[in-house]
Fold these 3 entries.
Entry 1:
Amino acid sequence: MSPILIAEQVLNGLQFGVMLFLMAAGLTLIFGVMGLINLAHGSLYMVGAFAAAAVAGLTGSFLLALIAALAAAAIAGALVEIVVIRRLYARDHLDQVLATFALILIFSEGTRWIFGSFPLFLDIPGWLSGPVTLPGGIAYPLYRLVLIGAGLAVAAGLGLLISRTRIGIQIRAGENDREMIAALGVDISKLYTIVFALGAALAGLAGALVGAIQSVQVAMGEPVLILAFVVIVIGGIGSIRGALVGALLVGLTDTLGGIFLPELFKLFLDPATATAVGASLASMAIYILMGAVLIWRPTGLFGAPA
Amino acid sequence: MKVLKTLALTTALTAVAGMAAADVKVGMITTLSGGGASLGIDTRDGFMLAMGMADRDDVEVVIGDDQRKPDVAVQLADEMIQSEQVDVLTGIVWSNLAMAVVPSATAQGKFYLSTNAAPAQLAGRGCNPNYFAVSYQNDNLHEAAGAYAKSEGYTNPFIMAPNYPAGHDSLAGFKRFYGGDLAGEVYTTLGQTDYAAEIAQIRDSGADSIFFFLPGGMGISFLKQYSNSGVELPVMGPAFSFDQAILQAVGEAALGVKNGANWSKDLDVPANADFVAAFEEAYDRLPSIYAAYGYDTANLLLSAVDAADPAEDPDAFRAALKAADFDSVRGDFSFDTNNHPVQDIYVREVVQEGDIFTNKIVATAIEDRSSAYVDECKM
Amino acid sequence: MSRETILNALLVAGLVALPLGAHLAGEPFTVTLATRAVILALAAVGLNIALGLGGLVSLGHAAFFGVGGYAMGILASHAQSYVPLMEAPFLIEGTKSMPVIWLVAVVASALAALLIGMLSLRTSGVYFIMITLAFGQMLYYFAIGWAPYGGEDGLPIYVRNGFPGLNTLVPIQFYALCLVVLLLALALHAVIARSPFGLALDAARQVPERVRAVGLNPTRLKLAAFTLSGAITGLSGALFADLNRFVSPTMLSWQMSGEIMVLVILGGTGRLFGPVVGAAVFVALDHHLGGLTEFWQVWLGVILLAVVLFARGGLIGLIAGERRTDA
């Protein structure tokens, strides 16, 4: 296996990780501030992708489509927070799991009701398509480089938002002591709605960005949701930095595992068996990683000790 | 023409067509909700189109949604057999659901006509006189792609499928008719959505062509990512990844791809022209391969009902099914000894007609193909 | 007698009377549907022991459900093909006998629960939910790639397994068998809840420090509850596979874990008969809504949401009042 191939696969792992981060950031923020497990986060990802596909179909503009995705997911998030989620903050995790499980059913089949059962079309704009040649002679799709850049920019922006702005201070305060910030006169319910909408918008953005190179269809959110959970658990729930590290770890493990495990097994098994066994193990790899991290550090890499 | 639809309020089953005391009752189990719904909807629409065109009141169809879950499919089959007392079952799209329903339904003496899924087990050692696959045997379309690769003189294809039984059968089917060297053989995770790693492997492998089997959303994702990668090798696959519904979501990325299929909308058969026109008229969209199988299955069923009542004279009904005396949209059609079709299998190319992406036939890959497991079937 | 006790008695009467009535009225499918509800209720009884008594929110119980299912599938498929499971060092043959299959299912899923529990109980809270989910996913992907036993296609069994003295192919007889198992599991739950072990477990859930102070190990108590819980859910998995005459990786999927959890919460967490009410209502909704509209899952979602938001303590809480009795 050539060094160029390995470098390219590392880039692929990074890109996958960065996209996972967009999903995981919202999830971990919502958990950190409101203490809420949101299984319906994947549905907001789907809302973003569908909104982008619909607007791109009407206007032909990818930028408008991205804006639509952000707006639609943020509005859907805010609505869900106001109508359902805010009644769940005081409840235990069990009620939250059930309620957001119910939301998945409503979102998924509701989307199918509106858009029909067939996958939608959403493509990369012409000015972002095709490969570029990187130093070392790697031909790499431009769009994937843009994804890495966009994801890292969002990560940096989120970091600034939390460390430098007024709302960031409120978010950090909310993570530490909910009663106290309410006592200090911060409108806590407004803060919660904003945080939830922000998390939703990030998920929607991820849905639109990824939707351009994947299939925009009902139930596209659930596989990503599970991965995002794995990410935030590895990183430590509530920690943005943990989410970034966790996302990159999961992205790299999944991508590189899929490549190297079958090759590894070929050393001592016949090729057909080796590919099948290696592929099986590769699909379990991130869960094994997660189990191992939790056994080593029960609250994740960057989580506060229980 | 609008398809009749009556909602039954007290049962999960929707009864359609033929309200009067029908002689023959057919249970259709198919996927009408969730991610795989488009395939089931096409199967149902094709089937009901044929029923509507025949305009018969001696056949009643009850339809149930299996949600693509094996246990729900089994429950529906139990309900249709125990309380609706159907004579014939049909409609399942997925192999794993078929494996859950077919063996026990045929063990209870019911007939099953497959509109799509036809796993190897049921074509070989697990074959049954009451089970007929109207569509194909699962390996067929992959075999066609293999035969095509050989005829085109490819010497180093890279082949890829998800890591599950249908994926293993797919690659085995391709290799059976290709028979040469491979640049690489990869199994992906079922449900995988990102293929950057596999595309990098393809680029690195020195392959001269690509064969892949990635049904549903997986195929859409792969094609979009592949077309953007700068790798420009000829691509082949089975028809499932280039189906009418999927092509619109892939767009230009699919143009030029070759796929193995036993049906195409431009297949020059009179019955096919009628079917395509009637389907567009009724549903305002182009038919897919699943709709074609559904339509053929309904017409086969009707031809057998004309000969005998399945409840009163199952032997005569079975013989009539086996005779396959109906106008197939695929032209020449007969059943082999294992009740799987003998038919021509073609290679189609994805083309653009106006705003619509669709397929046209470019070659015949294998003539009068039966299935690899026919000798294992003892009945 | 409390209202909940009266309700429970009515429920048992209903479990006996309704399917018997359907059987006499010649509606075997209603009996089949009731069997499905009873088996799912049994799975939820298992989870309820971890969830209600131990406070362990497991989103990975499909793992045990599936292990039980595969125990049945593997044993029965070997019996069907007359190929022994293992020849060396000693011969193990497949079997079509339910009691043997149940024993294997219980032992296998208890072992799985013990292992998963030992690792998972190092964490708590949300981390526990997620690590159980991860173990479930691990087994799910393993089963999908497990070619000798069908992989994603699953494993069909042509004829339902047998139980001495019964004809399990007759729906009402198989129903009766499942109902007896369910009632035994409910009795076990009730006995445990009142036993010293149950009381210690309850204390370990609420005030672990005090349990530690009297010299008990709260983690061990929870592990015991988790293992027992997994074993019962595993048994229900074997029955579920027998009901469908089929086992496949979908039994191990996270949606299945979610559904089992929905059953418990719908009925009322920690309530003795919560799983029974939850399963009965869920199966009925699942079945009847499907006939009303193609998009019935939207309405299922709305109903579930309404239960969480407005019926705290689940349906039993709604009928019998908020206060949890010591059942």
Entry 2:
Amino acid sequence: MRDGSEDLAGAPQDALRHLHRLTGPQRRAKRRGDALLLYGVSLIVAFWLVPYLVDAGRTAGTEADGGLWVNDRTAWLLEALPGVLPAALALALYGAARTALWRGPVRLPGEVVSWLLPTPVDRRRLLLPYWWAALARVAVATLLAGAAAGFLLRAMVPGGGAAWAPAVAAGAWGGLLTGLLAVAAGTLVERYEGAVARHGRWLFRTAAALVAVLGLAAAAGAGLLWSGPWGWAVAPLAAALGLGGAAWWPLAVLAGSAGTGWLLLVAHRAAGAIPAAALRTRTAAGSLLAASVLTGNLRQARAVVRDTGRPPARPPRLRLPFPRRPALLIPWRDATGLLRAPGRLVTAALWAALAVLLAHAGWPLAALIAGYPAAGALTEPARLDSDDTRRAGQLPYAPGTLALWHGALPVLLLAPALAAGGALLAVAAPALVGAALVSSYRGQVPPHVMIGVETPAGNTGPFQTALWYARGPLVTLALLAPVQGIPLWAALPWTLAVAAGTAGWVRRTVRYAIS
Amino acid sequence: MTGPEPALLTLREVGHAYGETPVLHSVSLDLSPGECVVLLGPNGCGKSTLLRLATGQLRPTTGEVLFAGRPVDENDPGTRARIATALDPTAYYPDLTVREHLMLIALAHGLGEAAERAVTDQLAEHRLTERADVLPRALSSGQTQAMLLAAALVRPHDLLVLDEPEQRLDARARASLGARLARRKRTAGTAILLATHDAALAAEPGLADRLVEFDDGAVTVRPRAGR
């Protein structure tokens, strides 16, 4: 029997070389695509950003151009910069770590994940090129963004006292540092996916609390240049702009560079050991997200971002007693679902509160408009049915009937909440819930709507798509608008008729969606 | 060949194609109450398609499918009250626990006071009692399959339609699945339409009355050996 270890010693390298040869045409095609994308982005930057940069350079430090670069707002920005910018960078780093839960800096094509990962190839040799590519992309983007920010901030300094080159260099360094830290953090999240899944809840909550504290401190006018790496990245820029609190900026450069360098070394080592499961998850999420965005299925896109990398589900603590009456069954189901997604209840309460405030302020139409998102938040259980109609496959209800049953609890919750804004607002609750159900069951946008037609003003596709998405609330609110602000006895029949009409519309929408 | 009683489910010269690709042609099959027909065939032969045509999830390109003498409509409440299915591995609510999912189905079908007992029995039968109060996300794929089977069996039904129910089940659950289905068929008079790759399940004593074998879109119906 062969001892495979000697014979296969060179196999992984041979496999990778063979793969490199086979994927040559695809890599060249991808490079052409990337070059085209870069060309497009460069054109956009050139058309939009360069004029601003030229104008900033020309009128720097003066109140020319109507005070575009030197005015009260820019003065406030410069004064608040030692607090606001570090808080913003801390938020960006938090966002990078959270994004790594479903995206990760290291993302492999689907075919590599499916076919190559299970083979005994050298994992480090396979993954590190992708890591370096991600690092390079982020480094270039954040360096350029930081340099542009430094340039624009220098233009806001009254009297033009600061030099250009130090401000641009400091901005570039700060941007680069932030970008590198973001990639390092994302790599560690991806590498230690298991630990993040087990402890991620308190980790991210702690991080979020820290970011919130930084934000509050910044709002209170505190300087945060020495609060952590997010502040060290800003210290040289603050010094270059002549702002206070940055006298020890060389220390910040030293600490930031050393810390980031060390973290990058750790991340580099970790990148080669990212588990296959983590890579598979992110590749699948990336594909699904791209498909969702291309087909206009924003709900699915949100679900991908929300559900990928979620910690294991705990047994729910809140359980409602089972109903004894059949009529209470679907409201019970919806109540259970809403209690398990308390964010929806909070969203509904906030929008309802806004609607009430607007009604009291004498803006009945605005109150009505604010009532719609409240209804939308409460019809989340209906969306679970519309996302996958097979979920209700064992229930002995026609789909249209089930959809209307999903409106019962939202009406029962919304009407009393809106009653604080007046009876007219309360009686609009059934119609608003109906509009929300139409939106819930609308399904995927039809291709012909997305494609649109060419007109002298451009393609109508985006406008048609937006109208298609919003048709439920648009039509319902347009029908309810004429009776706002008139006595209840006059408005009630029409409002109830609109509610009945939306109920029929819900049935029709469900029938169309499942056909 | 027809069963001894009037047919509950009738497929008459049924054909189906996905776009330009024909999958089934001229399939005729009757299923009577208390009968079990097992579909056998390689992957891609049309077993799942036939099951979905039988439940009304798909409309046939040619021919007709009748349930209790009327064209089958999966959205008709009467049909949904009488046909139980376990065809889709993701057909559950992600925000309800296993117990809540089964109770919702049992109560919706009018079990009333008996719902709790029925759910407890199904949880025990499918070895889900200790996982009854977790969300589906916390279940293994085998436990999810068990939950879907329990959901189909917890409610009253005249016809049970299963697509490879043995998939992802552990050996012990697989071994007992056939006996449980045979017992249900015997005691409740349930008609069963079952697609499987498991020869042991197809050969379970007291389960299959007839076997349907697929060959290039056409089917051959024969009684199970020994019947």
Entry 3:
Amino acid sequence: METEKAEGLGRYLVVFTGALLFWLLLTGSLDSQELLAGLLASAVVAVMAAPRMGILSGIRWSPVLPLQVARYLGVFFLALLRSNFDMARRVLSPALPIRPALVEVKTSLQSDLGRLLLANSITLTPGTLTVDVEGERLLVHWIDASPGTDLESATRAIVSQFETHLREFLE
Amino acid sequence: MRLVGDLFLLLGSAFLFLGALGLVRMPDVFNRIQAGAKAATLGVLGVLVGIAFLQPGWWPKLLAIGLFILFTNPVGSSTLARAIRIAGVRPWQKPAEESRALEEKS
């Protein structure tokens, strides 16, 4: 019961903070009247939307959550950079070195949010594009699949680098 | 400030250009989405960072745009790919091209 309650509260907090941050970004001012209106609007949004944000239930609340999220973002941006240089190399090379194939990978993440973030991360990382998600299986288009790649090796190559970081704060 | 901003703009545009080139060069729709999704994300982010350096007052709105791009771009790409696969398009395979190249040689 206790954890359920804390979880519900965290959900309100996340929606409220997110809405408020978005308000601040859009108005771009810390004027007290603007701020008051933003606080009110965010509160209304949180009360209305939080009970329906079931997607947030996958988050494991802990004091170090921001730290874990930051580390995941770091890994993610590095991967995004690498993926762009990788793609640039393929596009610019006259031989067009690609061996595309659809491969299946498996994730141990249980929550919808975890799978969503994982799928998005895969799409933006070197040579992979999430095509479909069915339960714990993700269908991935891999631009450089070695012949005879099976589920295990593909999972190791594509999924594990993000999964370890995501699993720290998601179910 | 000016120089750093211009540099980011140039880098962003370069990646966007590479993405466009990828769209032309890639053999099938899945590979095109791959080239487009990655290059567009980083390219647009680069351009946004560049603008933030040139017009420091705009950064909150630029950040909002950047976050929006970061979340919607991969989702859109995946959704397109999924729809295309369900519509029956299968990914292009290398061996077909290799055998064709062999035929042209002989």
